[in-house]
Amino acid sequence: MSQKLTREPEAAPGKPEPTPSPARPDPKRPGETVFRGFALGAGIAILAILAAVATFLLIQGSPALLADPAALTAKGYGPFLEWVLPYVFGTVWAAVLALAMAVPVAIGIALFISHYAPRRLAQPLGYVIDLLAAVPSVVFGLWGSLMLAPAVRPLFTWLNANLGFIPLFSGQVSGTGRTIFTAAIVLATMVLPIITSLCREVFLQTPKLHEEAALALGATRWEMVKMSVFPFARPGIIAAVMLGLGRALGETMAVTMVLSGGRNITFQILTSENPNSIAAQIAQNFPEAFGLKTNQLIAAGLVLFLITLVVNMIARWIVARRAAYSGAN
Amino acid sequence: MTTLSQTLASDALTSGRLPRFTVPVIAVASLLVGIAVASLFAGGNLALAAVLGFVLYLLAMETAARVVEGARQASDRRATTLVTGAFILALLPLGSVAWEAISKGIARFDLNYFTMSMRNIVGAGGGAVHAIYGTLYVTGLASLMSIPIGLLTAIYLSEYGRGNRLAKSITFFVDVMTGIPSIVAGLFAYALMGLLIGPGFKSGFSGSIALSVLMIPVVVRSSEEILRLVPNELREASYALGVPKWLTIVRIVVPTAISGLISGIILSIARVIGETAPLLIASGFTASLNNNPFDNPMMTLPVFVYDSYAHPGTDVQAYWDRAWTGALTLILIVMLLNLIGRLIARRFAPKIGR
Amino acid sequence: MRIKPIAAAALVTATALAFAGCAANEAPASGGSGSAGGAQTLTGVGSSAQKAAQEKWVADFQTANPNITVNYSPDGSGAGRSAFIAGAANFAGSDRAFKDDEMGAGKFAGCAADSNALNLPVYISPIAVVFNIDGVKELTLDPATLAGIFAGKITKWNDPAIAKTNPKASLPSAAITAVHRADDSGTTNNFTDTLNKTAPQIWTAAASDTFPADFGGEAATGTSGVIQAVSGGKNTIGYADESQAGDLGKASILVGGKALQPTAEAAAAILDHSQTVPGRDANDLAYALDRTSEGVYPAVLVSYAIVCQTYKDPAVGTLVKSYVGYMASAEGQQAAAQAAGAAPLSSGLQAKVKTALDSVK
ipTM of this predicted complex? Predict the structure, then answer.
């Protein structure tokens, strides 16, 4: 229903209409060629930078990947894959927990600002949420470990006592509250403004006519949102979530300061022993790393790189399947 | 119909609607019940009271709306409650963080802090002027590199490259770039400068390179998304008037999207201005002011904050006070940037829509 | 032409920044930019444990030599050693000396081709076992119990092994949360070495920068993180540099029947009871710590300054000699004790470091 209401005749998915003829670079217009050249150059520059980073990671990480596992074990950090696996799990698990908390709230906030708050208040309120993005991660780290961890400990004890039969909440509750759940709350707070900001912009761009048509048909505000705003904004929401995910996967300092990270793979989120994240693992151990250990940590960075690659491929695939409804265009 | 709705239905327009005072009345009532229950059974735990109050409000409104207004209105009211609740929920950490930073940072928020560096200062006293300048230099240079590259790439992706293979791969790899861990960016910049200039070369500029690697994908990603939202009708109208494409982009597309673009750029600056790990590696560490971002180590605020927190001397409080004031300063700088960005956006944004 | 006011504002801001680029406590010429005539910069990279002491040393040294800027980057010992090998640091601060296979003439880019490195102890600090237990002010542990707690084998505070050495304390029957360093660190290395040497049958893992993951427990980043986790949690115990312990209770360790607190004197004694690593240059003062001598507090961190025997650039050699010389002098050691809570080197060791430095070119 909602789809039909808002969908206009569109180019087929994945095959956008050819741009109108004035767009063709015109030899008589040097401005056009130059501008297009700059834009293209910038894009290629990005590819070059990324290639440089990847090359750097490969060159610096390869000694650890190619080294004899026995030599690595002798140095006390084990074969690479076995060593990195818990951190891969921790990275993804913390990010998933964080997004599970952040995405619904972020969409709610964005909606509140774009469609629910009184018009006059909307902009200042958006500004208030953006302030969260202004807080540096070091401060979130301080806040998480000093304020949040002690504050949520009673909640953890309660969850463990009353809902301990759910595997998520089982195990020996941490004595300090510095668990992966706390880290995920901090991460969620950090990605919240990123997701909110983009969602808000996208929601605000919903064609007025669509909204008014829905309202004129007698839809309530919520039905209008479901029928005209969400379908229009879906690709934007996914893009926003991906941006948030990128931040959550790569966030270093806050996780480093909040999480009590170990090497065990577990779904229990209230205990002292949590899987550490790759980024935190690198940041924590790089200063003291020496020789082969340095290479191993950089190889872990390469793994994080690959994780983002895979996650993004999946997201692209989802967008492509749903796709091509990119609103105004 | 129920008697309640009949008595309230003084005229046709408001029939079947809850009277306006319902919302505040139910809200206050559920909050009071929440507080009462919490103080009776959990020793007056405020968080518990708030959660209980919210759940009660949700249930009471649902019942009231369902009885009087019907299912569709009830779900509309539920959505309103949840959406508003989400907003209030987000204010909690914000308020908590802000309170922490202000109450702890105000102790050293004095003139000395903004006029002195840490050169030859041990224990109490001193300031962060070297770190503040460092942050401005490093972030400024990073922005100078990232914003043009990022914005132009976004323009290429949304205006020129529509769906061609290069654009697709750029989009994809930009996404991948968002996943570069910040410390890896720092290592990359350090190794790159080592290769170009000499081993161990640390400077503000090396830090800017590291930050650019982190910043560019954020700029591209948000700008591209915003540019795509500019209605095609505007572009077509411009072409119809014979305006060349590049002028259309510069004069029509970008100004239409300027508010979103700037908000994205500010977010990207906020994203990198608080980075610690890459700057510690690439820009190094010094207690003195350095006004040349192209040579010698340069201190930055996040590094200063982290270092003061992590490696205090025996007078721990003095170091932690400085750390909190540094954090507060950092927040204020980003707020200021935000404000400037918004002013610029308001100035350039065409007066259409909301 | 709407752009004009904004552009003007930006210009004004930029110029204001450019001209205001000064700090009230710095002489205009002595900034770190190195542009002033005769200004010299000395770069050290390394141990974050030395940071507080280095800060004091740098301040004193720069006050005495206003034309010199010393930048000590507390990136970490490993980073310091790497930077020293690459020639990026004029000297390294390291929580361990170079090992035998890492030493060798010509391996260090900043040194002359035939020059080896010298490891000089400059910073000694006791590692305190800190605890936060309801109603317990003093705690005495024998090494085996200490190892048992951190290995996860003793899990309750009222365990008989703990009660035995603390007859007067009212120990709760609460679970022990043992906090260790999440990051690799010299502190962990020295602490695990202590456990391994004093209770080898319980602490089976060798000394390592990384806390052994098999033993479990809670992890926290950095000394500050450990202190915070211990003081913020309940019934916690951890280990950290003594100078950072603050108000937390510090456990005494039973050595040969005597309960020793982590004091500067007890810590400094360890080098007098230890031998230098055999087979090295007479001036290389890398120590193999003996943690089992009587009357010596065993958990001690010894941190080194690593310098070249001969620098490629003699000017750098002179600078390093005078700066590291100040660090190891009686005056410098006293300053570090005051600012960082370090244990001063004994005067005998000060003399040895001085002799070694005199040979540096």
Answer: 0.78
